[in-house]
Amino acid sequence: MEGIVVVGAQWGDEGKGKIVDLFCQDADAVIRYQGGNNAGHTIYHGQEKFALSALPAGIISPDKLSVIGNGVVVNPQALIAEMKELNDRGIDTSGLRISERAQVIMPYHIELDALSERASSNRIGTTKKGIGPCYSDKINRRGIRISELIDPEVFAEELKKVLPFKNKEITGLYGGKALDYKKIFDEYSEYGRQLKPFVVDSTELIEERLEKNSRVVFEGAQGIMLDIDQGTYPFVTSSNPTGGGAAVGSGIGPDKISDVIGVVKAYTSRVGSGPFPTELKNEIGDRIRETGHEYGVITKRPRRIGWLDAVALRHAIAVSGITKLAINSLDVLSGLDEIKIATAYKINDRLIKYFPADLHKLETAEVIYKTLPGWDEDISSAESLDELPVNAQKYIQTITDLLDRPVLSFAVGPHRTQTHLISPLWKNSKEGAL
Ligand code: GDP
Ligand code: IMO
Ligand code: MG
User: Fold this and answer.
1) Ligand 3 (single-atom ion) residues, CB below 5 Å
2) Whether residue 207 is found in the same domain as residue 337
3) pLDDT tens for residues 244-299?
4) Is residue 354 part of a domain?
5) Are the beta carbons of 420 and 411 closer than 8 angstroms?
6) CATH number of the domain encompassing residue 230
């Protein structure tokens, strides 16, 4: 098996969904390995637009095996609704498989996410989907897994054990209203019944079903700078979007991974609170937001915008094992007189090339920029690097020089047809592959 991991190299929304959709055309399976319905992945098939949240991007291509891995947190209600929405649009989702080891997002997780954000003086700006509280329970060994959800007797037992703790937290800590056992049990055991046919041991499935020369895309959600270990903690999500997270969250060994593709937007965006050294709080930022339609796929929140940050990207590449870059949204920068890239930070008179852990230090950082000339041309139909204006080519060259990684693909629009591979993606040849 050959595995390719797709990670977001910034703060999310780099265009991972589109890249996974493109890569999976030549693959057999797609596995989502972390996060939950906090993600919003946009995919176009022709003129049809899909906004996926809980489902792996492979689901739009029904001949692919699409798997929700053990590292994912699953909101059963949201998942069932997303599947139904696709079914109503003529997409068959019966091939989906869900790891029995994945954790379930329960109503108390969603409630606690909202309550703790409201009570906090240091808001993260979460998506309020219950992600953090669900992962907390997983680590605290109080989580309910899919395998338990689909067995009503086991589910009843587990819910009876955990709910009193959660209600104490809701009422005692936050002054909220206790949740009703029977209401949750009735609703969620029904979800369990509906999801049961999709539930598998995903490791066994991959081992048994995929042949030796199969190709698997591991789909990351969020971005490396939102990683719980490596991101701008505590302004992060609660899982590991890094390359290593792919093995942990899919139950497949790292020996199967041949490449880690870092998806990089030609500028930077961020949703929610937290440091953003290259942020543009001016008309250039506003212009990029409007041109790039930078509003949350699910939450519709306006995204914060900034220049490309080679310091954050160097960190992302190092901690994630990124081997190649997929650069998206070059077209959004067309028409700017000049474009900047952060090459280093200066903290206490020292030049820093890797993202610091200490956010207090970061607050004092002066960002050192390299300024490049922009381009005016509409590049949205360019199909090769040669067809790009010289200044756009120089911009790409500068990125690869600063980051010391080759570019695998570049994109000049949100459609698959506007995303161009520069070199072959898969190492092993495969009979019958496109
Ligand atoms: P994801 O979460 O990483 O999958 O990314 P999102 O879907 O949340 O956000 C990426 C946004 O950029 C979506 O609106 C995409 O349609 C759009 N997009 C992706 N690639 C390009 C590109 O090359 N050019 C432009 N203009 N938009 C792009
Ligand atoms: P995709 O996969 C951008 C951000 C939230 C918040 C922080 C924690 O579409 O790139 P959470 O609800 O996860 O506890 O929120 O993480 N966040 C994202 N930002 N894209 C995402 O996903 C995100 N998922 C979470 O805005 O700052
Ligand atoms: Mg997104």
Assistant:
1) 13, 40
2) yes
3) 999 999 999 999 999 999 999 999 999 999 999 999 999 999 999 999 999 998 88
4) yes
5) yes
6) 3.90.170.10
- Give ligand 2 pocket residues (Cβ under 6 A): 8, 12-13, 38-41, 124-127, 129, 131-132, 221-223, 226, 237-238, 271-272
CA distance 126 to 109: 13
Average pLDDT over residues 304-314: 98
Ligand nearest to the CA of 293: 1
Percent of the chain with pLDDT over 90: 94
Confidence of residue 432 (pLDDT cuts 50, 70, 90): very low
- State yes or no: is 13 an active-site residue: yes
Phi–psi pair at 68, nearest 5 degrees: -95, 115
State the total domains in the chain: 2
H-assigned helices in 202-262: 202-209, 243-250
Give the distance (Å) from ligand 3 centre to CA of residue 261: 17
In the predicted model, what is the mean pLDDT of residues 400-415?
Answer: 98
261, containing H or E segment: strand 257-265
Ligand closest in space to the Cα of 233: 2
* 209 and 192 in a common domain: no
